[in-house]
Write a structure and sequence with these properties.
alpha/beta; four-stranded parallel sheet; 7 helices; 4 strands
Length: about 200
């Protein structure tokens, strides 16, 4: 009986003594010491600017943004057409404007980690669309295009990324088309480029 009690006590002590791995991700603005210095030096040695254009919050690739910003020192910007107030919310009561506020705050919270700057256009999310023309009609084609022109001229990105052309959801497709049109107008020498 004593042996069993000693064995149980030994196993219990060993499980308490084993260090437990814990993921400790610190927001960029809370970094201190050598980590903060390393991030600052990484940004000093790189003058590249990367801009991602998406239709809604949650369309972005935060892994790419954090790799480019924190990992390689690029300045990163996320231009989101809407605040996501026309989307679905399966985990809370927020809908419409309250949902847009919630999604905007979520983007702000994640950017404390990935380091990206957040920008929005005047587009209002209206839910699912069945065509690019419908999206342009509801968003206001010229107004939103003007917002993207303003953002691109202000940020002056070296690279602009949108969503994959294989994604057929129309607000995303219309965002991609707007960014391509602005890029072509701002860079006439690259009108035949396949990289846009």
């Amino acid at each position: 009986m004593k042996r069993v009690a000693v064995a149980v006590l030994a196993v219990g002590l060993l499980t308490q003594a084993v260090p437990r791995a814990q993921l400790r991700v610190v927001p960029v603005d809370d970094e201190q010491g050598h980590v903060a210095l390393g991030l600052a030096l990484r940004h000093l040695s790189n003058t590249g600017i990367f801009m991602m254009a998406t239709a809604h919050p949650d369309d972005e690739n935060n892994g790419l943004l954090v790799m480019l910003n924190r990992g390689q020192g690029y300045r990163t910007a996320l231009a989101t057409a809407t605040r996501g107030n026309g989307g679905q919310n399966e985990i809370g009561p927020e809908i419409f404007e309250a949902l847009g506020v919630l999604r905007t705050e979520e983007l702000g919270a994640i950017h404390r980690f990935d380091g990206a700057e957040q920008y929005f256009t005047r587009a209002v999310d209206f839910g699912y669309s069945f065509s690019v023309d419908e999206t342009f009609e509801k968003w206001g084609r010229d107004e939103i295009l003007g917002d993207y022109v303003h953002l691109i001229r202000m940020i002056r990105p070296d690279v602009i990324a949108g969503l994959s052309p294989t994604i057929a959801h129309d607000p995303r497709a219309s965002s991609r088309k707007k960014v391509r049109r602005v890029w072509m107008n701002e860079n006439p020498s690259k009108k035949n480029s396949d990289t846009v």
